[in-house]
Amino acid sequence: MRWRLIGFLSLAVSLLLAQAAFANPQKNAAAEPGTAERRLAHLHHGINVDEWFWGQSDPAAYTQEHFEKAVTPEDLALIRSMGFDHVRLAVDPRPMIHNRQPEQISPADLVNLDAAVKMILDQDLAVEIAIFGDSDFKQKLGDDDAYVEGFADFWRALAKHFSTFDPDRVFFEILNEPEGRDRYRWYGIEAKLASAIREGAPQNTIIATGAHWSNDDDLVFLEPLRDANVIYTFHFYESHIFTHQGATWSTNYWHYLRGVPYPSDPERARKAAEMVPDPVDRLAVIRYGLENWNAARIDAEVGQADDWAKHWNVPLICNEFGVYRVYADPGDRAAWITDVRTALEKRGIGWAMWDYSGDFGVVSRQSGRPVPDPMTVLALGRTLAGGSAGAAH
Question: Does domain 33-238+294-379 correspond to CATH entry 3.20.20.80?
Answer without folding.
Answer: yes
